[in-house]
Amino acid sequence: MAQNDPIFDPLFVESFNTDLEQLNSPARIAITKLSSGADVFELLDDEGQFVTLFPASATPEVTAAAYKLYGQGLNRGLRAGEDLAFSKLRHLIGAAADER
User: Fold this and answer.
1) Bridge partners for 44 per DSSP
2) Which residues, including other chains, have CB under 8 Å from residue 2's CB and lie 6 or more apart?
């Protein structure tokens, strides 16, 4: 851990999450149990689910921006999956209509 990195304790997490909230970000952080190193924290989504490990040197602004990009990518992926599913459904409906 670099000398300027924060000490992760419940007070740090609460303060960081308050900063994220003030930035209108649904992201939250938590002390990680996934790594023995104290140089990372967990980035959580708006449902409290693990997204990724994030470096201790990250600021709330960088964390909020990264989470926003994650959300945009996730939404694009979901829309692409929905588009494919509807395309297949339209194909199946069309094939069924052609059999009549």
Assistant:
1) 28, 50
2) 39, 56, 57
pLDDT tens digits along 52-90: 888 888 999 999 999 998 888 888 887 887 887 878 777
Classify burial at 27, counting beta carbons within 10 Å of its beta carbon; exposed 0-12, middle 13-18, buried 19 or more. buried
> What's the token pair of residue 34?
């996934």
Distance CA 9, CA 12 (A): 5
Is the pLDDT at 95 greater than 70? The verdict is no
On the question of pLDDT at 25 being above 80, the answer is yes
Q: At residue 38, what is the residue type?
A: A
What is the C-alpha to C-alpha distance for residues 21 and 44, in angstroms, rounded to an integer?
A: 13
